[in-house]
Amino acid sequence: MYRTHSCGELRASDINKEVALSGWVQKTRDKGFMIWVDLRDRYGITQLIFDEKRTPVAVVEKAKTLGREYVIHIKGSVIERESKNSNIPTGTIEILVTELQVLNEALVPPFTIEDQTDGGEDIRMKYRYLDIRRNPVKNNLLFRHQVGMKVRNYLSEEGFIEIETPYLIKSTPEGARDFVVPSRMNEGQFYALPQSPQTFKQLLMVGGMDKYFQIVKCFRDEDLRADRQPEFTQIDCEMAFVEQEDILTIFEGLTRHLIKDIKGIAIHDFPRMTYDQAIKIYGNDKPDIRFGMKFGELNKVAQHKDFKVFNDAELVVGIAVPGGASYTRKEIDKLIDWVKRPQVGALGMVYVKCNEDGSFKSSVDKFYDQDDLSQWAEITGANAGDLICVLSGQTHKVRGQLSALRMEMGERLGLRKPEEFAPLWVVDFPLLEWDEDTERYHAMHHPFTSPKPGDIPLLNSRPGDVRANAYDLVLNGNEIGGGSIRIHDKETQKLMFDHLGFTPEEAKAQFGFLLDAFQYGAPPHGGIAFGFDRLVAILGGQETIRDFIAFPKNNSGRDVMIDAPATIDTEQLKELNIKLDL
Ligand code: ASP
Fold first, then answer.
1. Which of 249, 258, 265, 340 has the greatest CB tally within 10 Å of its CB?
2. If residue 393 lies in a helix (H) or strand (E), which one and from where to where?
3. Could you give all domains of the chain from N- to C-terminal order, each with its CATH number?
4. Ligand 1 atom having least distance to the Cα of 526
5. Is the CB of 450 under 6 A from ligand 1?
6. Is 343 exposed, middle or buried (0-12, 13-18, 19+ CB in 10 A)?
7. pTM of the model
């Protein structure tokens, strides 16, 4: 028997018990006549003692050969520890060892297996299995498991059933590129890995499985941005005979339950905001509402004076940065440089200091008097002591730039508190989105999302104004979930494909199975998917999803541990009928 107890289990009440433990050598201390070893496993650390007086000599000699991370098995008795360690749960006892077996030797690890390690990110990723022995990574994985269990239990209680859908499928159009898999048995043909189980879950609704969920891997071959993984996990859900309100209620319930259960924080009704409002007030469809700094549009009060920059702008918009009036000239210049960085892209920034005595000092005093500036303060909600930062230009761009500045200032001022939770539903997304590259409308969500019935007549005349029955759940500035009510009749689906520029033949070739299914009694249905990695990271009080994935890929989409992607044998290529012309 390898172990009677784990390394985190024994207490003073176990004194005098004969036990067997197995684990890894965290560290050894050799005093010559006495050797102490910290033995570690998933559950904790237990101190072993090898004492010349009480332990057989051969065992003491063997203990002297132990190195870090050796895997060992011991037998011995639990005794009271002389110098107790109140930092660990097993700190009142130690094991007086009588038998020692080395199960496996270990090379010296390339970094220390401690909470604060000396290993950098790259080396830890290459030896991720060693990294997983460290508490911070191990605890994140345990936490992920717990969140997964809570989700499963909650949804199961609500009558949802988990159904697996295939990974080798035909392309699902979610807006990214597919990863493809060549088929050996069907020359020249490929499977695609699912970007999501979207079409399958809709077919499950046609199949009568009216409440489906799945914690499922999805694959998207996107250009990698920081903290995006080419394969990631979703909590994917679909329900039949529901309207938007039903879906929001259930998944608001799930989110509230998780925040309460895991964080002990009670949240009442989640606020809602339309997409248009979110964009106007925060410049962003996933606003962090833990802090204010709402946008104030200044066109009316700032245009038609002599300031050409503003007169030429489509939008003049500002935010009030709390306490910013005390910034020095140098600090403000730095802020201006910050908004001018290519990643943000503003051409410049106008500022107004709202002095404590009620007066204003701005960078455009030549064009605006105190009355003008006091109107700006009113519109941006600035108080005495604040700094109003104003950007101008093309509406869409300026909103993005000011949103970036708002988030940056929120961060700098410590307003994005990790232990505060502010969920928000963003509803009424546009159905279609103009794509500059292809010069065509694309489905903003996906082509199965239903337009708001009242907006259907606009499809021909003002397609960009048609709103969808689509919603996102935003938590602390992150989109953690998104979904929609689907189209469930063949005619509307055809109309959609038509507007997205699919010919009837293309639509039939790609989605014939779905259009067919809609002819056999498709119920009204809708659903949502949560980004599980991100949700777990946020609930864990962190923003990096990589820390919550056992074997993540790096920022270039590589697994540096197994060294993938990699080339394959010529033989394998031949079998797959793939000719590489390199
Ligand atoms: N399939 C969608 C996504 O992955 C979610 C949904 O509409 O349910 O974003």
1. 258
2. strand 387-393
3. 12-104 (2.40.50.140), 139-272+424-548 (3.30.930.10), 291-415 (3.30.1360.30)
4. 8
5. no
6. exposed
7. 0.93
